[in-house]
Write a structure and sequence with these properties.
3-stranded antiparallel sheet; 16% helix; 4-stranded antiparallel sheet; 7 strands
C-alpha cells in the first residue's frame, strides 16, 4: 500500500466517523449518545411495519382493539411501555383470561402470538475520536405480542 493510498483511506474513514453525531463520555459512565434520528426517519425504517392498531409514539391509540368477537375466551388489551431506546415507545397487546370456565372442558384460553417490527437503539463507540465518543445505531428487531386469544387444549 502506498503512502498516498493510506492517506486517502485515513481521510475517508475520518469523514465517515465525523458524519455520525457523537457525545463524549468519561470512564466509568454508561455509554450514551444523543438521539438524532427523527420520528419520520424511524417510521421510514419500519415502513409498513408500523401498525397504528398496536403501536403508538404517545401511549394513546387511535382505535379500540376489536378482539374476541365470539365472546368465548375472555381477554383485554394492555399498553406496554417499551424500554428506553425502543421505537415505538408503546405497544398494545391482548392479555387472555386464565379462567378455564370460558372454554369447553379440557381447554384453556391461550394467547395467539404475533410479531411486530420495532427499532432498538444502541450507542456504538467511535474509536476515531478523542476523547472517545459514541453515535447511535438503529436496528429492526422482532417483538412478540399477544394479538388475540383462543380456546386451546392444555
Amino acid at each position: 500500500m502506498t503512502v498516498h493510498t493510506l492517506c486517502v483511506l485515513l481521510v475517508s474513514v475520518a469523514a465517515l466517523a465525523s458524519a455520525a453525531p457523537a457525545v463524549s463520555v468519561s470512564w466509568g459512565s454508561d455509554p450514551t449518545c444523543e438521539e438524532v434520528l427523527s420520528l419520520e426517519g424511524k417510521r421510514a425504517m419500519l415502513g409498513d411495519g408500523f401498525i397504528d392498531y398496536y403501536m403508538s409514539e404517545s401511549g394513546h391509540f387511535k382505535e379500540a382493539i376489536e378482539y374476541n368477537d365470539k365472546g368465548i375466551c375472555s381477554s383485554q388489551s394492555r399498553s406496554v411501555n417499551m424500554p428506553v431506546g425502543t421505537f415505538p415507545p408503546y405497544i398494545r397487546e391482548i392479555v387472555c383470561s386464565t379462567e378455564a370456565r370460558d372454554c369447553m372442558p379440557n381447554k384453556v384460553c391461550k394467547k395467539v402470538t404475533a410479531f411486530v417490527k420495532v427499532l432498538k437503539r444502541t450507542c456504538v463507540p467511535n474509536f476515531l475520536t478523542s476523547p472517545l465518543s459514541y453515535y447511535e445505531k438503529w436496528e429492526v428487531k422482532a417483538q412478540e405480542i399477544g394479538a388475540g386469544c383462543e380456546c386451546a387444549e392444555y
